[in-house]
Write a structure and sequence with these properties.
Structural class: alpha+beta
Shape: rod-shaped
Largest sheet: 8 strands, mixed
CATH class of the largest domain: Alpha Beta
Strand content: 15-25%
Number of strands: 10
Bound molecules: phenylalanine
Distance between the termini: 96 Å
Radius of gyration: 46 Å
Length: 345
Amino acid sequence: MSRRESVGTVAAMDVAALESEALSAIASAPTLGALDDARVRYLGRKSELKQALRGVRDRESGLALNTARERIESAVAEREHELRSAALQDALSAEALDVTVSLPGDEVHLGTLHPTTLTRRVVEDAFLGLGYEVIEDREVETTYYNFDQLAFPPAHPTRSPRDTFFLDEERVLRTETSPSQIHVMEAKPPPIYMVSLGRVYRRDEITPTRFPIFHQFEGLAVDRHLTLADLKGTLLHVMRALYGEERQVRFRTHFFPFTEPSIEPDVSCPICELAGCRTCKFTGWIEMGGAGMVDPQVFENVGIDPTEWSGFAFGCGIERAAQLRHGIPEIRPFWENDLRVLRQF
Ligand code: PHE
């Protein structure tokens, strides 16, 4: 008996048995692949059901077969949905993704510190380590603090408007950080250990080595029995912080109105280690600023007894120190704000 003949009567085929076989195969299909196999087996073109449907002759068997087909189809859809959501759950837990770690955050554009600031911080740290107070002082000074109290004689050339920026008869842009010495000594009694860092102004032409604005750091120590040896040890400490532990310091005699004796400290050239090179003009040493023992006249100006107290002071250019630290040949780049230069630090 051929199949075609057999479906002539649906009764010949046990629709209910077929349906329940199909439904249980579908419900227990473990994977989407197995489900598809079951679908093909029970609903495919060559399946018993489809063959029977094709041979349907009477309305009753048609209805029975179609109802079975619809139930099997919806069972497939239901199982497919189950398997897909289970697969999704598995994938979600297997590939658990911590979005707080994996997603890029807002980009932070880090800048760099200006070489003047970098060097200034080295100096500040070195002095904080010695127990010094770090201060920042005013840039507009009176001639009283900028000159008189520092014992500049009346005819000193720096008092001329050709050298100094005058705001009016009595006010100037400070020409050095030394007036900070006076302010601090007026403000409190010794012992004093302070360093003042900031801008100073001089009416210089702009050249590779000079600029009308630059930074200085100014130190002042007032205590009992301080000597040039204390000054030398202090400068040595700072020079080594700036240029490395191998540095040496030497003094040359000099003159400043507010120190006696006055000296100019040199640091051994960190480029050539005393051998002589272009940076140190083949001397092996580099001039680092001015210094000396506080002049008794200055102590008297601020009401400190020079027979009881002694002190030393020093002042150095910060750009100059930064130039040497970073091998920057000129002072101009410090003030030009060319980011291509500044980003290198
Ligand atoms: N103020 C001096 C200068 O600018 C440096 C200096 C500071 C000298 C302190 C002696 C003591 O040249």
